[in-house]
Amino acid sequence: MSTLTMNNLQKKYPNGFVAVPGLDLHIDDGEFLVLVGPSGCGKSTVLRMVAGLEDISGGDLLIDDTRVNDKGPQERDIAMVFQSYALYPNMTVEGNIAFAMKLRKTDKGQIKQKVAEVAELLELTQVLDRKPGQLSGGQRQRVAMGRAIVREPKLFLMDEPLSNLDAKLRVQTRAEIAKLQRRLGVTTMYVTHDQVEAMTMGDRVAVLRRGVLMQCAAPSTLYESPDNLFVAQFIGSPSMNVVRGVVRSAGEEGIVLEVAGQSLALTGAAAQRMAGLAKYGGQEIAVGIRPEALGGDGEGQITVAVDLVEMLGSEKLVHASIDAVAVRAIDTGVEIGTGTSSTMIASLDPRRDVRVGERLTLSVDTMRVHAFDLQTGAAIGRS
Amino acid sequence: MTTTADIPLIATPTAAKDETPVMTKVANYTNKGMGKYIVWAIAALWTVPTLGLLISSFRPEDDIKTTGWWTWFTEPGNVTIDNYTTVLQDKVAGRPFSEFFWNTLQIAIPGAIIPISVAALAAYALSWMHFKGRDTLSVFIVALMVVPLQMCLIPLLRYLFAASWFPNALSGTPSIWIAHSIFAMPLAIFLLKNFIGALPSEVIEAARVDGASHMSIFVKIVLPLSVPAIASLAIFQFLWVWNDLLVAKVFGGGAANQPMTYALVDMVGNKGNEWQLLTAGAFITMIVPLIVFLSLQRYFVRGLLAGSVKG
Q1: Taking 70 as the threshold, does the pLDDT of residue B4 lie above it?
Q2: What span, in angstroms and rounded, lies between the C-alpha atoms of A310 and B200?
C-alpha cells in the first residue's frame, strides 16, 4: 500500500526536446489514476519515468514519501503491464508469473502456491505449462496481469494494456482490471489514449497535453465541469460542440449569449454558474454544448439545419449545420475555424422523427452550457 | 522448414502473424517444376568431390593408384579400412596422427566457446546497457573487421605472446584459443549485437521491472532467445578454427600443440605419393565438422532466417 507523488517532474531529451516541462501529481494509497491524452502527449514518458525505465531530468519522484529518482526499476518495487505484454517467450506461463519471485529467491513452495492462486484468479490454471506463443491475445494479457499482481508490489503501472485486444474483449477486460484493482487495493497508474477507458476505470483521471497537466479530477467532474476547452473536447464521445458566440449582456437578471445569430438566455442557476461571463460583456467567447444537452428538456432554443441522421439504437445522432464558426482546442492552444458555418452533433431520442434537410429547433439545457475564453481556452465559470 | 514457427520471439498477437514460414514458401517454390531438378543437380555436383574422397579412402592402395574412384561402382565389394588404421597409427613429426586429432578438438571447442561467450556478453552490453560512448565503441569494434588477420600475426606474436610478461601457462594451446578469440571478436560481436539488439525492448524492460539484474536478464532471457544466432555463429567459428592452420602454426609453438591440418600438410609433403593415406586423413578431418553441422543445422537454418524475418 503506497502513495506516489510527483513534484515538478521533468523530462528533457538531449536534443533539447521537452517532453514533460514539469508535472505535479499525487496518487493516494489504493487509488486508480488514469493518465490520458492524445498520442505524443508524454503520458507514456511519465509512466516510464515512474517505472525507472527513463531518466528523470528534474523534479522529485516519491514513492511512499521516499525519493526514488536515482533508484533503478528493480529497487522501486513496482509492477508494470506493457502494451505488448512483453512476456518472456522462452518461459512457460508459470515461469513468466514466477520469474520475479524466483529472482527474489522466494521459497519454492510459496512460489507454487502464489502462482496457483493467481492462475486461479485469472483463469490461467489450464495453460500454466504453455508458452506465450501458444496463447490467445486475451490469455497473454491475463498472464501479463498475473505477472504483475503475483508480487504484491507497491505500485501497478499499466501502459495501454488493452490496446491489443479486440473491441469486445477490451470492454470485458476493462471491467475485470478495474474490479481486480479495487479488490487488491494496489495504487495504480494507468496510461491510455482512449477516453472511454479513462472515464470508466479511473477513480481520478489526469488529462495531459504536451506534457502539461490540463486537469486531474474524478471522471464526472471532468465531464460536467472541464477546466478548459482541451479537456472539454477530449472527454466525451461524440465530443462537445464548441462554436464562437458573443456575450450580449451579462448582469443581475441573467446572461444573454448570441450564437449563430440566435439568442440564448441563461437565467437563475444557469446564470449564476456562469457569473464569470460578466467580465466578457460584448466580447466573443467560445460556447460549448454537449450533444446530449441538445434536444432534451431545456429552456434555451437553437435552430439548425439537419445534414445527416445516424440511428444508433439507443440514441439518434443528428449532424446539423449552424451558422457559427467552430472552435477547437489544438496542441498549441485554441483554433478558430474558417468559414461561416460549422457542424454540431445532437443526441436525440431515437423515436423522434428527424429528416435530412429540415430546419430543426433543438432545446438547449442551459444548465449544461459551457463557456471558454477564446484566447486561453480556460473555462469561464462562477468568477 | 516450419520449425521456424515453433518459438515466437515476441509475445504479441501481431508478431504471431509475422511468423510466416518463409522457408516453407521457398520449399514450395523449389519443390515445383524445374527448381526442384536444378537444386538437386547443384547439390549432387557439390557433393561429388566429397563422395569421391569417401570412396577412395576405403579402396585398396593398388586400386587408388591405378583407376579412378568411380570404377569402384563396377566392383563394390572391394573395400578396406587399412587406410584408416595406417593413418591413425602413422607418425607425423614423431607423433601418432590420432594425437593431432585430439589436439584439434582441444583447440576447436574452446576456440569456439570462448569468443562467442565474450562476444555475447559484449553484444548485450552494447545493446542494452547505457553508458557513455557506447555507440562509438560499437562502431569502433565493427570497424576492426577490416583489419586483415595476416597483418596482425607478427605484432600479436611479438608484443603479446612472445613478450616477457606473457604468462608461460598460457603458451601453447591456450595461445591459439586467445588468438582465435581475438580474431573472431569483431564479426561475432557485430552479428550477435544485431540479433540481441533487435530483441523486443519491452521484454528486457519487463525483466528489469521484475527485479532482474543485467546478469540475470542476460542468462535467463537474452541467452535462451539468442540460441539461433549463437548456434549459427558457433558453427561458423568451430568450422573456421577446425580448418585453421595458419593461426595454430604461428601461435601454437611445437608439433605437440598442432592440429590435424598441420599433420595433413606434413603428410602431403612427406607422403605425396601415398594417396590412399591422404584420402583417409582428409576424411578424418572432415568427419567432426560434418557431425557438428548436421546436428546443429536445425538452428543454422533458423539462425540465418532470424536476421531477415522480423523476430
Answers
A1: no
A2: 43
